[in-house]
Amino acid sequence: MARLHIFDMDGTLMPGTSAAIEISRQIGMVAEFRELDRALSVGEIDSYVYARRAYRMWSALTESHVAGAFTSAPWLSGIREVWADITARGEHCAVISLSPDFFVTRLRTWGVHDARASVFPALPFVPGAALDPSGILMPESKVTIADELCARYGVGRADCVAYGDSLSDTALFGVVPVSVAVNGDDHVSGLATHAYAGDDLREAYALVADA
User: Fold this and answer.
1) What percent of the chain has pLDDT over 70?
2) Domain of 85?
């Protein structure tokens, strides 16, 4: 039976950090984005408020900044190898992230079959242009997108494996039978069927690859 492996990105494929933090390093705004991350993690703001504030602070962002952030980010080892093995088995893999699409979709070049993310205007941003709230993902959006991908690949929720680390992954962990908390926090530790702490995705994947 084919399966669909669904990966979170912030904190999961990039342990201890997020796309926003890595981008902020390129433009000298780390403190501002750490505060945004904190507020989101404790529920003081939702994903749209986060995105709207980030969009405003990214007014001068360029493709060069994003490319530099993506290249220098502290990715887990073995990501390409895991996705290649999933493909070789005739299974499917996707990344679903609340982070901006101009960062997340770069993962498609590493072999993931699909990468879904919050939709931002193309870079460079047009001054004064509004951010469309309908394109910003919420944690529950991961379930909706997972269902869309299941329909595309001819599988069901029962055939899904989810990998995540925090609050934004709880909705998805709650509807799939197999999940891996990758360097997970208290929000997912009680929901996940497996747990992994370390820096190599191959080791986390090995917990469920042959299940």
Assistant:
1) 100
2) 4-15+75-206
